[in-house]
Amino acid sequence: MSSNILLDVSKVTLTFGGVKALTDVSFSVNKGEVFSIIGPNGAGKTSMLNCISGRYQPNSGSVRFKDQEITRLKPDKRSVLGLGRTFQNLALFGHMSVLDNIMVGRHHLLKNNFATGPLYWFSGTQNEEIKHRAAVEEIIDFLEISHIRKKQAGTLSYGLRKRVELARAIALKPDLILLDEPMAGMNQEEKEDMARFILDLNEEWGMTVVMIEHDMGVVMGISNRVMVLDFGCKIAEGLPEEIMANDHVRKAYLGEEDEMLEQLEASL
Amino acid sequence: MITLSMRPCGDFRTSYKADNQIFETKTIRWLTMASIGLLCFAPMVLDAYFLTLFIQISYLGIAALGLNILVGFTGQISLGHGAFFGFGAFASAWLNNSFGIPVWLAIPLAGWLTMVVGMLFGSPAARIKGLYLAIATLAAQFIIEDFFARAEWFSGGAYGAAAEPFTLFGFAFDSDESFFYVALFALVFMTLWATNLMRSRDGRAFVAVRDHYLSAEIMGISLNWYRLLSFGVSSFFAGIGGALYGHYLGFVSAEGFTLMMSVQFLAMIIIGGLGSVKGAILGTIFIVLLPEVLESTVALMAETGLVSHGSLTEGMAYLKEMAIGLVIILFLIFEPQGLAHRWKQIKAYWKFYPFAY
């Protein structure tokens, strides 16, 4: 069983002063899965993702990736291990071209540095850049953003920026990609495109996907498994059909009275 | 910022190699090369005054390029650039005088040495930002200045250090005419160095750190290392510029490398355009030529007799300082993105005329 588990989060607790953002959350993601995290606003979904990607360090508990302890690893070391992510609020490098943005994603795969880079033609930098440019173009083709590759990232529309961010995360060549609300603020057409990209990523590019999303239609449609957070606690995990049928989940979303949820809230 | 490509219709690139070129079009490349070629004949035509100005532009420009990598591209701040410039000048003279290392080798070595010193003093950058970093680098400025005054083994203390002229294959480049070529070569070389750096891995990492450090970290960029490295690279440029300055004047004294010089470098890159290689050079040209142009204008006015000679020439020193201050303020208000941006807009205007976009 352990060989199939890519990401294993166990008993993660994260507090900010007196606020408990996450309490004893455990879950694991298998290789090749699309795993969704849902929950009402402020439930701790993004905090969870931040613990996995390294922006926050949990107060207790552990995060294991590829059978390796990464709980205290710096974020920039995690990309080398094969962890990529996108952000909920756009986090592109606004003054760079789209192409350069995606090329930044190749950072840990490129070898040239401050001493060899300036000797562009003589140190093999040119060939290396061209080689990686080809890889980047493949991603650009896949996400259908070839018409904007020379545009400045900060000038693009919201939907396109989200797509460029996805492209940049793919360029890292990750085994596990964390998507924080990839479809927030998109119209129906863009959402459909994005859902297709995520499925293709999963099936054709062989990436395991962990995603936070609010659009239940999409979540239930493309996820293999779903986890529900509320008040920083895990209240359910299972197949999409099971989650849809789950009473606690429904009440958490609708804000109805529920004994378990009340106990949860009281315990904080 | 104008992002539209200035490439003319029908100029298609069919390989990534062609698409990655430094110059946007063939015309620009030929024009640039032709003007560098023309500059090679300058010593035969121009007199020493203009050559001196060009040499000044090149060693200051190289240092300004470095500061632009730090401030413009990485988004850090430094008030100690003048001290690093001075360190390069002393280091090169010291390497040459004490160890007999030939000048052509001492200059790059001085650059690397300054890089090490820069990274040492830049190490607070890994922790602090903005104003706090500015104060930390201010400390570097004063510490290094004090070091120049006291470390007699290194800088000759209050007496200063003699710097041998640049020699290659037994030929000494000790006149304005001959040193012009050294300066021209260094300027072209370092500009290429900076351009290539900015289109390869570490250059992109610098900009990424500036634009969005959180996502840069997720992309595998170590923030501490790149903030530090940026100080190193900028000091490297300052060191090379300083070394050239030392070997040009033949003598290095500690007085020149003050806070005023650091601020002047900042003025150059703000006027030229933050985050632009071209901008650093344009800004240097501007700052170097501004007082000269002022002076000749005043001389001209005095000759025509429109104003009384005495008062203006006496006030000249103040006028220069005030003019630089005024220009910086005007630039901040009317063209905060600098001369490089203005240049782009002029080009866009020509290209799209009579349309606005």
TrEMBL record, chain A:
Pfam families: ABC_tran, BCA_ABC_TP_C
Keywords from the named record: ATP-binding, Hydrolase, Nucleotide-binding, Transport
InterPro entries reported in the protein's UniProt record: AAA+_ATPase, ABC_AA/LPS_Transport, ABC_transporter-like_ATP-bd, BCA_ABC_TP_C, P-loop_NTPase
Presence of the UniProt keyword Cell cycle in the record: no
Location of the ABC transporter domain: 7-256
Record PROSITE patterns: ABC_TRANSPORTER_2
Keyword flag ATP-binding: yes
Superkingdom of the source species: Bacteria
Listed GO CC annotations: plasma membrane
GO molecular function: ATP binding; ATP hydrolysis activity
CDD domains linked: ABC_Mj1267_LivG_branched
EC numbers, comma separated: 3.6.3.-
UniProt signal peptide: none
UniProt-listed PANTHER family: ABC TRANSPORTER ATP-BINDING PROTEIN, CONSERVED COMPONENT OF ABC TRANSPORTER FOR NATURAL AMINO ACIDS-RELATED
The name this protein goes by in its record: Lipopolysaccharide export system ATP-binding protein LptB
Organism: Parendozoicomonas haliclonae
Automatic annotation (TrEMBL), chain B:
Keyword match Cell membrane: yes
Mode of membrane association: Multi-pass membrane protein
UniProtKB keywords: Cell membrane, Membrane, Transmembrane, Transmembrane helix
Positions of transmembrane segments: 27-46, 52-71, 78-95, 101-123, 130-149, 178-195, 228-250, 256-274, 281-302, 322-340
Coiled-coil zones: none
Keyword Transmembrane helix attributed: yes
CDD domains from the UniProt entry: TM_PBP1_LivM_like
Name the record gives this protein: Leucine/isoleucine/valine transporter permease subunit
Naturally occurring in which organism (per UniProt): Parendozoicomonas haliclonae
Organism ancestry: Bacteria, Pseudomonadati, Pseudomonadota, Gammaproteobacteria, Oceanospirillales
